[in-house]
Amino acid sequence: MPVTNLKSHLAAAMRLFRVPADNPDLTRAQFDAFSKQVPLLYFLLMSNSIAVAYTYVNVAPDWLTLIVPSVLTVLAALRTFWWLHQRHLVRTDADILRNLRATNWMTLPIGAGFTAWSFALYPYGDPFAKSQVAFYMAVTVIGCIFSLMHLRSAALIVTLVVDVPYVLFFWATGEPTLKAIAVNNLLVSGAMVTVLFIYYRDFADLVASRKSLLAQQVATQALSDENFRLANLDSLTELPNRRRFFAELSSAFADAERRSIRVAVGIIDLDGFKPINDNYGHSVGDRVLIEAGRRIREVCEGFGPQRVEFARLGGDEFGLVVCGDPDDADLMRLGERIGDQVKLPYQLDTAHSGLSCSTGFALFPQSATTAEALYECADYSLYHAKRHLRGRTVIFSSELEAEIRSRGVIENLLRSADFNTEMDLAFQPIVDAMSEHTAGFEVLARWHSARLGLVSPADFIPAAERIGLIRPLTQALLVRALTTARSWPDHIRLSFNLSAHDVCSPEGILPLITIVEKSGLAPHRIDFEITETAVTFDFVRAQQSIAALKAMGCGISLDDFGTGYSSLSHVHRLPLDKIKVDRSFVADINDNPVSHKIIKSLTGLCDDMEIACVAEGVETRAQLDTLRRLGCDFIQGYYFAKPMPGDAIGDYLVKERLRLDGAATPAAKIVA
Predict the structure, then answer these.
(1) More confident residue, 232 or 325
(2) Residue 172: its pLDDT value, please?
(3) How far is CA 307 from the centre of its chain?
(4) Which of 12, 50, 145, 346 has the fewest CB atoms below 10 angstroms from its CB?
(5) Is there a contact between 557 and 580 (Cβ–Cβ < 8 Å)?
(6) Number of other residues whose CB lies within 10 A of the CB of residue 228
(7) Is 269 a catalytic residue?
(8) Can you tell me the mean pLDDT for 357-370?
């Protein structure tokens, strides 16, 4: 055999007696399994040794029957306790390898010690006692091999250290029975070693397959975690999404309920986002949403001591869950900080744009007793902020709770209302600013509920929109308004308000066209007033509806201009005939330079675009004179007349004609 082959075989044989260090998973598995079987190993050694020592106690010296077995038993007991202690410790791979190697080499002196002690006892016994020594050594070595099967190297060391001297010793006695026992023990030990190798191979394969399975489980868990993350993540802003928000709300609410502390829900809506989307495109709108979300998240992360969970609920709406027992002052401070950050300019390609945000909060336990109800209260706070305090923060209160109850009553009664009998029409004049002749009337709806009495349009119109009754209500009112207008002089126009639901869906505008065609009133005498909110709700659909009305010959007025978020590009892209300046600018036109400049700019815009300018809410002569100087074309307000029923219009027009005729010919008035 070549020297190199001999060396390789020797190296392979030596590796059998070492603990492998190249497979940490296998080593750890060996340690875990071996540590469980060590007590069995030492129990066999101690019990068998005590039995042999007892047999020789009266025939052998005391140091062989008492001292040596006591030392060996104490040593075995100490090792047993040491291994039991190791089972409860968390060890590194290096520690495990070091302990197994130490155990491996301790097997040699322990095995040699028990073997030498057995041989030392043998000469003092009779044939039965000598047979017990042979039996003791054979059984013990087989038990040790079995107990050491997870540490193959140690099992092989025990086999060599005990079995080789055992076979040689008893073969040398010449006693046929002992020689047969020695040979039999050699064969059984060989079979046990063969089983040991097979078991060790299968054990290593099992550890490897377990490692592979564990890796698959880890990969599966990682995939599951990633799927969970994606399912709870908004793909655009990479913020938690609506699903995650409500999960956080449910958890935070349960915790607050259990600990009897406060928790708050907040809803944020961006004011003025839709015009950005319409004017600059969705890609720019997405960038604005991402930036707004980033700003709000930074505020939430830095808002201590409360913890704020932040998510995008959808569109331009975001949600907050404020934990940590917040109070009203904390919520107002959080809302103000968010508003200040959202108001900062946004870079949109070559232009800058500004936003604001309205925020509604609701606090547990003051506002609601369930998570769902708390969210609804926050939503109503946001609704109130959007209507009355745009760009501000509103916290749900007892006053808002009363509003909700009132709103629910209005909605329920509106569902059963007879529009033909309960709805009345009032008409407010629209007057030529220079001649002071009435040019038309705006239709205003009034609801006389049998239970509630007179209900303001500011209450029942939004209610009709919420419950889906605005379109049938609009149609019923338009039929009656057109019928009334047929009796007016031909130069008097009718202005009729349309909601966003009327102009942003085919189901809304087509029935109105049919009503106009059947009314007998010339379409050119009709002005449809559309608010900025309706235009921004769905600009493309609104543009189509306006084009259809214009094709009939109807006029189009943009109502409440300056209070919404429609941009000048909307004004340029719509076939408008009039722009109505909101009353909020007119009220302090002579006291507030800003209002004066705004109206001056709007009249200049209307003049450039050849659009008539209508000023609402005129109540004094001073306001009228200023609006005339600024170039307003038409005036509407209490200075000329309050809204009146349809049957009073005839008398009003007669009185107006007499007034104007008298003002034109004062001499005739004196004679009369």
Answers:
(1) 325
(2) 79
(3) 15
(4) 12
(5) yes
(6) 11
(7) no
(8) 90
Residue 665 clears pLDDT 80, i.e. is over it = no
Both tokens of residue 200? 């060790």
CA within 13 Å, CB half, 670: 3
- Record the tokens describing residue 453, joined without a space: 């009495």
Structure confidence at residue 644 (pLDDT): 94
Q: What is the dihedral of CA 470, 476, 479, 480, to 10 degrees?
A: -120
Residue carrying the six token digits 């039991």: 84
Element of type H or E holding 286:
helix 282-301
Of the listed 163, 234, 269, 316, which one is catalytic?
316
Measured N-to-C along each axis, helices 621-630 and 593-609 cross at an angle, to the nearest 10 degrees, of 50
Full 3-state SS string of 629-650: HHCCCEECCCCCCCCEEHHHHH
Residues with Cβ within 8 Å of residue 470, at least 6 apart in sequence: 461, 464, 499, 501, 502
One DSSP character per residue, 486-553 reads TTS-TT-EEEEEE-HHHHSSHHHHHHHHHHHHHH-S-GGGEEEEEEHHHHHHSHHHHHHHHHHHHHHT
Nearest residue to 497 (alpha-carbon basis) of 556, 540, 440, 455: 556
Tell which residue, 460, 370, 382, has the closest CA to residue 415. Answer: 460
Whole-number Å distance between alpha carbons of 445 and 330:
42
What percentage of the chain has pLDDT greater than the value 70? 85
Angle at CA of residue 108, ends 106 and 110, nearest 5°: 70
- Which H or E run includes 482? helix 470-485
In this prediction, residue 173 carries a pLDDT of 80
Question: How far is it, in rounded angstroms, from Cα 1 to Cα 348?
Answer: 84
Fill in the amino acid letter for 519. S
For residue 536, what are its two tokens?
Answer: 């921004």
Q: What whole-number distance in Å separates Cα of residue 444 and Cα of residue 495? A: 9
pLDDT at position 1 over 60: no
Q: Other C-beta atoms within 10 Å of 525: how many?
A: 19
pLDDT value at residue 9: 42
Tokens describing residue 17: 């007696």
Tell me if residue 332 falls in helix, strand or coil.
helix
Q: Encode pLDDT of 260-289 as tens digits.
A: 999 999 999 998 887 777 677 778 888 888
Burial class, 593, CB count within 10 angstroms (exposed 0-12 / middle 13-18 / buried 19+): exposed
Of the candidates 121, 102, 106, the one whose C-alpha atom is nearest the C-alpha of residue 75 is 106
Q: What is the pLDDT of residue 84?
A: 75
CB contact set of 26 (below 8 Å; sequence gap of 6+): 20, 204, 207, 208
463 burial (CB, 10 Å; 0-12 / 13-18 / 19+) is: buried
pLDDT of 669 above 50: no
Would you tell me the crossing angle of helices 176-231 and 164-172 to the nearest 10 degrees? 170
What is the pLDDT averaged over residues 312-320?
A: 89
Secondary structure of residue 637 in the 3-state scheme: coil
pTM over 0.70: no
Q: Token digits for 271?
A: 């004011």
Angle at 451 between CA 499 and CA 463, to 5 degrees: 20
Average of per-residue pLDDT across 69-90: 78
